[in-house]
Design a protein that fits this description.
six-stranded parallel sheet; Rossmann fold; alpha/beta; 215 residues; Arc Repressor Mutant, subunit A; 6 strands; globular
Length: 215
């Protein structure tokens, strides 16, 4: 897997590169600014880009803009966005094109090295990974309290694990239940939310999250 990293903090940038290299991945370029990141993605065509939301020169949302531009040029181009804080607006923008190959994690999650590398690989393979705190925020901010209240505690947990990019087998292992039980929970979730399962886990996750964040 060929990776480009866009991060202005030198220590974190170097740390990410070292982590990925130690796990057998190839970091083809690192960038400290939005223009450098844009050039690296365009010239090197990596398998995935890891992008800080805020990059020089203005430290607003340049990283996100570069990611959006890359996905506009190459639909579905895999991007894992890192953020210092939960910013639901950015999560919404990432989800707006309805495609997979997306991740949004808080920078603190990098400390769990194995999980971070797993997230990068899921995104590179076309999956969707959202930070648990982002999912919790989406669940608490949407305007369908009564609808979400129909979900049982276990169904909410399944929904969160789906949003983190976990496959049904991974959810079953995490919860200590069978895959058959997980499938039943997922069908119940979609039934209660008025969404039909289409056999595509990534699109189902995106559909659910977009539904949950609707005003």
């Amino acid at each position: 897997m060929r990776v480009v990293i866009g991060e202005d903090q030198a220590l974190l940038r170097d740390g990410l590169a070292r982590i990925l290299t130690a796990y057998g991945e190839t970091v083809v370029a690192t960038a400290a600014t939005a223009p450098e990141l844009r050039t690296a993605i365009a010239d090197l065509s990596p398998d995935v880009a890891i992008v800080d939301v805020r990059l020089p020169p203005s430290f607003t949302d340049e990283g996100l803009r570069v990611a959006a531009q890359a996905r506009a040029r190459t639909p579905g181009f895999p991007v894992l966005v890192l953020s210092q804080h939960v910013e639901v607006l950015y999560a919404r923008e990432l989800l707006s094109d309805g495609r997979g190959g997306l991740g949004y994690l808080l920078k603190d999650r990098v400390a769990d090295v194995a999980r971070f590398v797993e997230a990068v690989r899921i995104v590179a393979a076309g999956g969707t990974v959202l930070d648990p705190d982002v999912v919790a925020d989406l669940l608490s901010r949407r305007g369908q309290e009564e609808t979400i209240a129909r979900l049982t505690p276990r169904e909410r947990e399944v929904l969160r694990l789906m949003a983190e990019g976990r496959a049904n087998a991974g959810i079953a292992s995490r919860l200590g239940v069978t895959e058959k039980a997980v499938n039943k929970h997922i069908n119940n979730i979609f039934g209660k939310l008025g969404l039909l399962p289409d056999g595509d886990d990534n699109r189902r996750v995106l559909a659910v999250l977009n539904y949950l964040e609707a005003p």
